[in-house]
Amino acid sequence: MEKDIDRIKKNNETDIVIRIDDFGGKRGLTIREFVKSERYTGFTKAGTRIPADQFKVFKASINSIDEKDLEGSDSSDSSEGFSSGKKSVKGDKKEERGEEEVGEEDLEGAI
Questions:
Q1: Residue 15 belongs to a domain with what CATH number?
Q2: d(Cα 89, Cα 94) in Å, to the nearest integer?
Q3: What does the pLDDT read at residue 87?
Q4: Cα separation of 29 and 51, whole Å?
Q5: How do residues 85-94 score in pLDDT, each as one tens digit?
Q6: 77: Cβ–Cβ under 8 A, 6 or more apart, which residues?
Q7: Which of 18, 70, 99, 107 could form a disulfide with 52 if both were Cys (CB 3.0 to 4.6 A apart)?
Q8: pTM for the complete prediction?
Q9: What is the mean pLDDT of the chain?
């Protein structure tokens, strides 16, 4: 099972793809770069995978980040250039695209 959750534009050739997938028979959350260029189109090795049994810890860590700590940072200082230049609310983007929210229960079934 593969279920794309979102894509975040990193630059003109690269998106960061967030998806739920099965790898080696184990479900988890994968965050990986997807490149579309003349030389190569597809996923790169850059990224990480959160096993389903660690998702609650990951989610709690992300939710503990204060958005104010991210404000005022100059994206030109970032070597990775992660600034997408847009703010979004989690559910709003999904509704616009007609997609459903994916919650913890989607990952818990694989544990």
A1: 2.30.31.10
A2: 9
A3: 41
A4: 6
A5: 434 444 444 4
A6: none
A7: 107
A8: 0.60
A9: 77
What integer pLDDT is reported at residue 74 of this predicted model? 59
d(CA 77, CA 96): 32
pLDDT for residue 64: 95
Both tokens of 4, joined, read: 């794309």
Residue 42 domain-assigned (yes or no):
yes
Query: What gap in Å lies between CA 89 and CA 30, rounded to an integer?
Result: 20
Residue at 106 is within a domain: no
> Which tokens is 68 given?
């104010």
Residue appearing with tokens 């709003």:
92
Buried b (16+ CB within 10 A) or exposed e, 1-16: eeeebbeeebeeebbb
